[in-house]
Design brief:
The complex is a heterodimer of chains A (128) and B (502). With 128 residues, chain A is α+β, with helices and mostly antiparallel strands. Chain A contains 3 helices and 8 strands; from the N terminus they run βαββαββββαβ. In chain A, the strands form 3 sheets. A 4-stranded antiparallel sheet of chain A has the order 2-3-1-4, with helices on one face. A two-stranded antiparallel sheet of chain A has the order 5-8. A two-stranded antiparallel ribbon of chain A has the order 6-7. Chain B is an alpha+beta fold and 502 residues long. Chain B has 3 domains: 240 residues, no CATH class; 83 residues, no CATH class; 123 residues, CBS-domain (Roll), CATH 3.10.580. In chain B, strands 3, 4, 7, 12, 17, 18, 19, 20 and 21 form a 9-stranded antiparallel sheet that branches. Chain B has a 4-stranded antiparallel sheet with strand order 6-5-10-11. A 3-stranded mixed sheet of chain B has the order 1-2-22, with helices on one face. In chain B, helix 2 packs antiparallel against helix 4. The longest helix of chain B is centred in the C-terminal third of the chain and has 17 residues. The chains are: A alpha+beta (128), B alpha+beta (502). The structure holds iron/sulfur cluster (2 copies).
Chain lengths: 128, 502
């Protein structure tokens, strides 16, 4: 399960992800992170059954946590199955099936948003 | 053996015609042999579905009361051509909305009309004795037009070069988003299903030939603009009734950072008259080659990195400089197939008969580049030859003095051989003066990644460099990387009152 974690980095603050890994013993896979001097946002992947544990632990350390149920969404009525998105996505989420129809491996998506502007038909959007 | 067009039409009428798509044909020829395929197959249908920027429609509004001779015309805020007298216009696919810019354009107006949506007409006129009205505003549906005729000057490219990008910047082009460092290859075209690739000698495709155009029965007018069959880049001018078209085969699109375009579904049925037709329609993706062009070079003569077949492009992986690069298509092969299949059904059902060209299309000409009687301005026309540079081992103080004396904010830095090695700006020097750290020499504070230009580079290209890198000066270097001049934003002001700057 993917979690989107937002946290502020006050002076002297502890590295929150490392701390949660230590406290909970859960191995966290960081898929994407943007961290500057005052705040950070990380997209992490954790085993489904330990999602609550990790999320509670993050919240207790002052982070905002959102559980992301979905990856990128395709508007089927706009998509024309060109495949322009395929070579743009760094995680190989998109592919064409033998009938040349677009297929999605949604679970691989890290919601980076790179594919959105590459779609000529404005068929791609991040989930709300 | 030879079949006549009349024999084939006879079979269409009596329902015994054998139609296959151009994708199915190679296997049939391989199985039955050329003679066998000629006996077996009467018609090969082709199809393509991709971005065809050079598209649009003629619209006739009928007369208002009191009547108006429209001079400037907008449909949903997209300007349409007003030079066709009174109540006609041409709406071009790539024209962008005055308000929504690349989010909405002529292609969207056309798609909205086909989808049954209403479109707002706004027009103005000087007013004349015979046409007194000066403005008009009205909402229109496709059915309200007397004529709505799609007429596309350049469609159905025989093939199209693939694109990649060697620069370190992401590029937004009509070939889609191109990742930096040749991070992807983008291509377009239906390959084995493409109409002209199945008739490269243009024996069957010519004026008057019936076609599938966006779901309607349309027609080839003749050669398209930029038609260049000599190198395998033929194009067609086509027409069809917008009122009979379907959104399934006509879609507006926006190439991000580039602009609006129209995706057109186009297919041509080819009568299998003789062995030459059999051979031509047996063409496979493997047989059709294009160049992979480097769109990082902003010139008409982009370097071709290698040749590649549609089979390789469609596999999803192309080898470039020894590396595997992912390739993806802008056009839809699935939709191209649907076009060819739909056309096949039309012919099997007897709703379309075939015809040979009433006039042939030139099969050997090549398109010429633009004749430019006036060369655009080059860097040497406006660059400042009184450039002040500084040695890398000079003290920062010296740089400060030079900056103060000359009216410049940029000092190119050179080494002992007079070769450009860096650049310092007033900002870099002031920073070093205010915070005197360990830095004493120019080379300690200079930027070593210098964006440069050359004397014969077009000013437009230099301007793009300034904008892309958000800088205000470019050292002008010769082939030995010696600084011969500098080009600043101020020099650009010399051109037509600064028209070159956005
Ligand atoms: S780029 Fe857009 S239209 Fe093309 S396949 Fe991807 S989602 Fe569909
Ligand atoms: S958001 Fe990023 S990871 Fe997800 S599909 Fe788009 S490009 Fe791939």
């Amino acid at each position: 399960m993917k979690l989107l974690v937002n946290f502020s980095r006050k002076k002297g603050g502890k590295p929150i992800i490392a701390q949660v890994v230590r406290d909970t013993g859960v191995l966290i896979n960081v898929e994407r992170a943007v961290i500057d001097s005052s705040e950070g946002e990380a997209l992490i992947d954790v085993p489904d059954d330990q999602c609550r544990l990790v999320s509670d632990s993050m919240i207790s350390l002052g982070a905002n946590v959102r559980i992301l149920e979905h990856g990128i969404t395709v508007n089927e009525s706009e998509c024309i199955d060109c495949g322009a998105c395929i070579s743009i996505c760094p995680r190989e989420v998109f592919s064409l099936d033998p009938a040349w129809k677009l297929q999605l491996a949604e679970e691989k998506c890290v919601l980076c948003g790179k594919c959105i502007e590459a779609c000529p038909h404005q068929a791609l959007a991040l989930p709300l | 053996m030879h079949k006549s067009i009349d024999q084939i039409n006879e079979r269409i009428r009596d329902g015994t015609v054998r139609v296959v798509t151009a994708e199915e044909m190679p296997a049939i020829v391989a199985e039955l042999g050329e003679e066998g395929a000629l006996k077996e197959v009467d018609v090969v249908t082709t199809g393509t579905f991709g971005a065809m920027c050079s598209s649009g429609a003629f619209l006739n509004f009928g007369h208002a009361e009191p009547p108006i001779r429209m001079e400037r015309i907008w449909l949903n805020n997209v300007e349409a051509y007003g030079g066709l007298a009174a109540v006609d216009t041409y709406i071009g696919a790539t024209q962008q909305s005055d308000t929504l810019e690349e989010q909405y354009g002529g292609a969207h107006v056309i798609e909205d009309l086909v989808a049954g949506k209403s479109v707002e007409l706004r027009a103005s006129s000087r007013g004349t004795d015979c046409y007194p009205r000066r403005t008009i505003n009205t909402d229109l549906l496709l059915e309200n037009f007397n004529q709505a005729i799609m007429c596309n000057p350049r469609n159905a490219y025989q093939r199209y070069n693939a694109a990649t990008n060697s620069t370190d910047r992401l590029l937004r082009t009509y070939m889609g988003v191109l990742l930096p460092h040749c991070g992807n290859v983008s291509f377009s075209g239906a390959g084995t299903l493409n109409p002209l690739s199945n008739d490269p000698k243009l024996r069957l495709i010519g004026s008057g030939v019936p076609i599938f155009l966006c779901g309607a029965q349309g027609m080839v007018i003749g050669e398209g603009t930029q038609h260049s069959p000599a190198g395998g880049y033929g194009t067609l001018m086509v027409t069809g009734n917008l009122k009979e078209m379907s959104q399934d085969y006509l879609r507006a699109a926006t190439m991000s950072g580039y602009g609006v375009t129209l995706y057109v579904g186009l297919g041509i049925p080819l009568p299998v008259l003789d062995l030459d037709v059999v051979r031509a329609t047996a063409v496979r993706d493997e047989d059709i080659t294009v160049d992979v062009m480097d769109y990082g070079v902003p010139s008409r003569n982009r370097p071709a990195l290698r040749k590649v077949t549609y089979a390789e492009l469609r596999s999803g992986i192309v080898e470039l400089n020894g590396e595997e690069v992912r390739s993806s298509s802008l056009s839809s092969f699935r939709k191209a197939r649907q076009v060819a299949e739909e056309l096949k059904h039309w012919i099997e059902r007897g709703s379309m008969q075939l015809a040979l060209p009433t006039r042939p299309i030139d099969a050997i000409k090549s398109a010429k580049p633009m004749h430019q009687s006036q060369k655009g301005p080059r860097v040497l026309d406006i660059m400042d030859r009184k450039v002040v540079s500084i040695g890398e081992n000079e003290e920062i103080k010296t740089a400060a003095k030079k900056l103060l004396k000359g009216d410049t904010n940029h000092l190119p830095v050179i080494n002992g051989d007079n070769v450009l090695v860096g650049i310092v700006t007033t900002f870099d020097v002031s920073k070093a003066v205010v915070n005197p750290g360990k830095a004493h020499l120019v080379k300690d504070i200079m930027k070593t990644k210098v964006i440069t230009t050359t004397a014969d580079e077009a000013v437009d290209i230099a301007v793009q460099k300034l904008e892309q890198h958000n800088i205000s000066a470019l050292p002008v270097v010769d082939s030995g990387h010696h600084v011969i001049a500098i080009l600043t934003a101020m020099d650009l002001g010399k051109l037509f009152g600064g028209r070159w700057l956005k």
